[in-house]
Each structure stands twice: as structure tokens, then as C-alpha cells.
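Lab channel / #folding
Pinned by the channel admin:
"Please post every new chain as: sequence first, then the C-alpha cells as a reply. Keep commentary short and put observations after the output so the thread stays searchable."

First post following the new format, from NK:
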Amino acid sequence: MCFSAPASFSASGIIGLIGGRTIAKSNPGDKYLAIIPILFAVQQCVEGIIWLGFSIPHFEAYRYIATTLFLIFAWAIWPAYLPFAIASVEKDERRASILKSLRIPGVIAGIGAIFPIFLSNPTPQIIDFHIDYTTQNELYNQYVIQSYNAMYLLCTVVPMFISSRKGMTEYGLANIFGLIIAGIFYESSVPSTWCFFSALFSIMIYRIITQSSQSNQQA
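Reply from TO:
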């Protein structure tokens, strides 16, 4: 999370517990969607370690590894994984076909993000009680960066509105709300802040999963 180590670890623990419950309630076909809260819990725990690296000398040695892992989650895993996970639970063939097609730009964005993570020496900095991940943007021109940002949003937000799964649209709206809040109030730390909001909103997947399980039982 973007405020403190205790907040990051607390969020990680709560989301992890709900994530475990989500998996327990899920059907076999929902497993890729159900695991998303657990992945967010891991990511928040990693950012907690980054926070500790600023205040506890023993953890400073782990800060680079934690930063790299956090950004792999934020920039590479999510655009590649979300279209795949949402497509895996889609029953409507036409919508499923569209969602599956979004896996291509998702994988491209994910692979494309790996290179700047390892080549641009990302450095976490605390700015106004938030973590800002600065990189050497001169490695890529603005066109490349803007193209990546467009693909990122296409793959992390749009699938939620294509899905016919009950509750998925609300989940998408919540994530857009989180992005707007992060962009307006935490411009210097959007990756950290939006990932935190998205982590919190991922608990909505519990309801999406349980609604599906209840519908299957009634059928």
C-alpha cells in the first residue's frame, strides 16, 4: 500500500483471508478468477517489505528485489493475467471470443514491461507518505509509453465490462473509480495507489464467485 508498512501488511492479511475464502467457495471453472485476491495480497505484502526497507536497515537489502517483484505484478502480470482470468469464466461465446482476443495485447504489454523493469533501474521513493517508483523513461519515447498505457487499460479494465458475469461491471466501475482517485490525488504514485485500491476492490470477486456458486446450486 502507499501509506505505510503496517497498512500494507494489514491490507495483505485481510485480502488474503478473503481470497482464501473465495477459493474455497469457487467452482473448479472459476479458479483463475478466484485466485486474484490472493495475488493482490502477495503484491501488497511485497510493498510492505519495500516500506520496511526505508526504516529498518536489515530490510534495505531486500528493497531492490521487492521493488522488482512489485513492478512485475503491477506492470506485467496484471495486463496479461486479467483478460485470461475473466475469459476463463465467460459463458457467452461471443463475449468469450472478444475476451480471448484481449489476451494478445495483454501478453504483449506484460512482456514489454519486463524490459524497463530490469533496464531502467526503478527506484522507490517516499513522497508525501506515498511510494513513487521512478524509472529512466528516456529508454523509451513517449509514443511507446502512451501505447503501453493504452494497452494496459485495454487489458486491465475493459474485460470487466465485456464480461456477462454478474457483478463484474460493478467491479470494473470500482477499478475506474480507484484509477481516477489515484490520478487526481496521488499523481506521483499512481502504480502504488491504484494497485492498493484494486487490491481492496478485489474482495468484490468473493461476491462474484459466491453468486455463481449459488446460481449453479439452484440450477
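NK: The chain has a mean pLDDT of 88.
TO: also worth noting, The domain at 5-218 is CATH 1.20.1070 (Rhopdopsin 7-helix transmembrane proteins).
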